[in-house]
Amino acid sequence: MSNKIQAIRGMNDILPAQSPVWQYLEGTVKDLLASYGYDEIRMPIVEQTALFKRSIGEVTDIVEKEMYTFEDRNGDSLTLRPEGTASCVRACEEAGLLYNQTQRLWYTGPMFRHERPQKGRYRQFYQIGVETFGMATPDVDAELILMTARLWQQLGLAEAVTLQLNTLGSNEARARYRDALVDYLSARKDQLDEDSQRRLETNPLRVLDSKNPETQALLADAPELHDYLDDESREDFATLRSILDAAGVKYEINQRLVRGLDYYCKTVFEWVTDKLGAQGTVCAGGRYDGLVEQLGGKATPAVGFAMGVERLILLLETLDVIPQEVMQTVDIYVCGVGEGAAKAALLLSDQLRGEQPWLRIQTHCGGGSFKSQMKKADKSGALIALLLGESEIEAGQVTVKDLRGGADQQTLTQAGLSDWLKEHLN
Ligand code: ATP
Ligand code: MG
Predict the structure, then answer these.
(1) Closest to 53 (Cα-Cα) out of 64, 68, 41, 44
(2) 288-320 as b/e: b if 16+ CB within 10 A
(3) How far is the CA of 61 from the centre of ligand 2 (A)?
(4) Sheet holding 46-48, edge to edge
């Protein structure tokens, strides 16, 4: 009889063997964000459904078909967050963090979208998101991009990702372009597939996203977004590009990059890789100057991005660039065999932790023979094992066994151990 309950499709456990990679990625990003002066914010995972409908836009993939929406016991419509920007704006607005202030914020956590699960695409996935508020000039757009470029350098991913860059212009400029695009496409409607015909009615810019080769061919002669830009957007884009050029960050201008969500204006960008198949966007973002006001606040310029943690981890693994020491999580394994040895092992371990708090010490618990304890020591990944037998305990000594190199086993006084470890393990 086997009817064990299983995890929900597209929602994964992150098992202990994978955690070191997650911690490495998250730790690297956290340190980087701190070095740029960004502060962490944590929002709830559930919000009122209206928040996402109003911010992301009714005619987007997310709101139309991907949200986990349910009624709670009070009859309110709630949604598991599909992204973090809307929640972040809501939280900041509610706490008064946007009024006459600038904010540089980041968050991380799970997001939920009911998509078709496949490699790099899940129903619960993790993002690290960054949002800035109160800065209207393209210097902060550039800062965000420079920050991500530095991250790829630090992670060893720089050769595997490229930056796609575009500007969408002001809302007015984009509206004028939308009209021109609709005129062009409407005259050729019969050449569009069903999906694009529908988008033409509901969210015409998204036709530019179409993966259909015939649609893409049709778009070759379509009006170009950049011919409709307002002066300010044009100048800001030039400033952004000049900063990226001066910093040596390469990019490709892609006028078809419009991003799925309604709230973007001016700068939009995506970091993409060709190493992960169809799920190639590892980081995406842009400016969204209108969103705070749209959600009921005072008009506040904003720009941000989000990275997909699973995709970045897949990329780290594919390129085999995870530093070896990341996977090594234990330095010392302490074994004790014989009368009173378990107690002695715990006490010795604790004494060492007090003296050298940076050491990662796993103390054997659960008894067993010397041989079985050594097997566990080896499996732990520790660099050395400390052995306590009855004779060692009696003599106030400890035997040190090198688990990785070929050094001879040696017996030290417990008092001398601390110095020996300082010399050999740091
Ligand atoms: P895609 O075009 O791949 O569906 P998106 O435009 O919907 O991406 P965003 O809303 O911009 O994605 O989210 C930012 C990042 O989060 C993406 O670039 C990607 O790395 C990651 N991401 C988005 N959806 C998923 C998912 N279902 N599973 C895993 N990662 C995801
Ligand atoms: Mg998507």
Answers:
(1) 64
(2) bbbbbebbebeebbbbbbbbbbbbbbbbbeeee
(3) 7
(4) 46-48, 77-80, 68-71
Q: At what angle do helices 231-247 and 138-155 cross, to 10 degrees?
A: 30
Q: Quick check: 284 and 193 in contact, CB under 8 A?
A: no
Torsion over CA of 238, 244, 245 and 247, rounded to 10 degrees?
A: 150
Per-residue burial over 39-71, b if 16 or more Cβ lie within 10 Å, else e, is eebebeeebebebbbbbbbeebbbbeebbeeee
**pLDDT 10s digits, 256-311:** 999 877 789 999 999 999 999 999 999 999 999 999 999 999 999 999 999 999 99
Q: Ligand 1 pocket: which of 65, 311, 314 to mutate (most atoms <8 Å of CB)?
A: 311
**Does the pLDDT at position 1 exceed 70?**
no
Run of H or E residues at 314: helix 309-319
Q: How far apart are CA 301 and CA 102, in angstroms?
A: 10
End-to-end CA distance of the chain: 53
Separation of alpha carbons 39 and 104, rounded Å: 6
For the beta sheet containing 332-336, the strands, ordered from the edge strand earlier in sequence to the opposite edge, are 361-363, 332-336, 384-388, 397-402, 410-413
Report the atom number in ligand 1 closest to the C-alpha of 306.
14
Q: How far is the CA of 307 from the centre of ligand 1 (A)?
A: 8
Confidence of residue 416 (pLDDT cuts 50, 70, 90): very high
**Which residues are within 8 A (CB) of 217 and not within 5 positions of it... i.e. 6 or more apart?**
none
Token output for 112: 């939920």
pTM above 0.70, yes or no: yes
Q: Please list every protein residue whose CB sits less than 6 Å from any atom of ligand 1.
A: 83, 113, 115, 120-122, 125, 127, 260, 279, 281-284, 306, 308, 310-311
